[in-house]
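Quick question, first post here. What does this chain look like in 3D?
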Amino acid sequence: MLFSYKAFDASGRVVTGSIEALNVEVAVSSLQRRNFTLSTITPQTGSWFERDIAFWKRISDRDIVILSRQISTLFEAQVSALRIFRLLAVETDHPLLRKVLVSMADDIQAGSSISRALSKHPEAFSSFYVSMVRSGEEAGKIDQTFGYLADYLERTYEVTSKARNAMVYPLFVIFTFVGVMVLMFTTVIPSITAILLESDQEIPFYTRIIIGISNLLIDYGWFFLILIIIAGIFLWQFSKTPNGRYTLSTLKIRLPYLGNLYRKLYLSRIADNMSTQLSSAIPIIRALEKTAEVVDNAVFERALIAAAEEVKGGAPIADAFSKSTVMPGIMVQMIRVGEESGELGTILQTMARFYRREVSNAVDTLVSLIEPTLIVLLGLGVGFLLAAVLIPIYSIAGGS
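> Answer (accepted):
Ran it through. Tokens below.
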């Protein structure tokens, strides 16, 4: 939050300016540490344009990945925590992230721990992130912890981005095709329909289907559009409820082929997340609970929470996972080997690498299959439309 202030410095001169802080108390404390005697301090709300830009320019996963790597590098260079966050606040171009970093630097200067300063900004740092940093502070390995976090976030971002980007091309092609078809049905087909009706010749069945679709879109197009918007809003609201989230999560992992890709993506996230936390000496029950928070799928989230409850009761992790229908047998067996050998963290790292490769291969295969499939389907659609329109016209031309 930005505050404007008027104050007197140590020599009694009037000083005016602005300062970014989490709240007015932090702003006052920060100014007093500069030996300023405050006269007035007021919050700045900013212009409507600035607020609108801030709303759309959220802190993305990519921003946090880059920030974590920078923090890790600076800690390795033996730079103090306060100086790190002051330096990064000056260097970043992201307005919201700059405010977060300034606020954190002020909190750290006031005596707060890094994890506590991070916890005040859930819009930027997840509970998993905060938990990792808190564990690093308790173990005296904060520099290593930020290194683990940077590596983990980079791996997660790479896998998630690849899976997401694989869907951009087919969705673009599909939406473009639908747009072109709607344009043809509402502008081109009606003109050709008038010519066919004036000819008084018998219109083939498949051409009547095309004409019927055209008339339907012209007469009820707005109704269908409103219906689609209402259905989209209802689905969005439904996805916010616990039952809706669980239903959509179940559907996501049961989709043909895509479901297998999503399952591997979530399993990679689970294995990588747990191995990262274990490497930071976080207890296994806490690691399971934090992994459940970040897995981003209600089905796997329930499985992890149930496993955490089983482990609290004294059950091995492998036995707890074996009771879930979504955990594959290979993961259960590998975890059992890791528990028996005392190398669970190493086994989970191996599983994470395995599933990352599986996700990468599945995405590459999906992309290679989607492109020719779309070309064939679009060709068939366009071919049927042209045949339904041109064949009757050729018949008219031949008859005349």
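Residues 46-56 have pLDDT under 50 and may be disordered.
The two ends are 78 Å apart (CA to CA).
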